[in-house]
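Encode chain A's predicted structure.
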Amino acid sequence: MSPLKKYGVALGLLLFAFPAVGTDLAILHNGFSIRHERRETVGSMTRLYLGGDKGYVDIATDQIERFDQDLSPALVPASAPTVAPAITLARSAKPQNLKPQELNEVINSISDHHHLDPDFINSVIHAESGFNTRAVSPKGAQGLMQLMPGTASKLGVSNAFDPRANVEGGTRYLSELLQRYNFDVIKALAAYNAGPQRVQQYGGVPPYYETRAYVARIVRDYNRKKIAERKAAAATATANRNKQSPPRPAAGVKQAALPRLAPQASR
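Encoded structure for chain A:
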């Protein structure tokens, strides 16, 4: 089981780890932690600078619980893993239209196969295409997870407008990026958006507004899902406890005894 599945699903959260150049950790209310060298407040956002030429990420200030000193040991970046040959996906002359429930089942199944949190993949799809299976970007990216034709070809996706093929290809590509960057989610998302060559060029998140906004949008969307999930779980647990607890009998009200009065003598 991959680290992302082990920690992302077991805890219901993804730990956003940055290279050890950061000196502080921004601890979010939902459990995320983001390493950074410095920060500043920009309106309702807190801008976290990742260090050097690695850019920054904007996070809503009210989503940050506190800041801690980063005491974690330095990590040696893992070399890019050998990618297994792409599995050619079945051709589909006409992409199948899936109902929302069917699409959820597809995402859940494929995410589980690649040991990723389905909520994470849902957040990526929401940012990429808004769940539009026929989406095409100005640069030519196609389908739910906006695969470029070259990337789709390398992944064995013959029809990027086929929902199952697109989600399988996009999820597998994202899984490969996570392994490549030692499960640094921010770098993987930046590479998915701007390309691994740009992440390598800038040593982290490229200084592009589009990429920074893209990463932050996915973080916020995923945050909302996890926070809502926690609240729902807490409400269910409370309801179950209330059902199991027998109702307490109402305390009896004792009536004070009235003193007996001696009969008054008639006048």
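The two ends are 101 Å apart (CA to CA).
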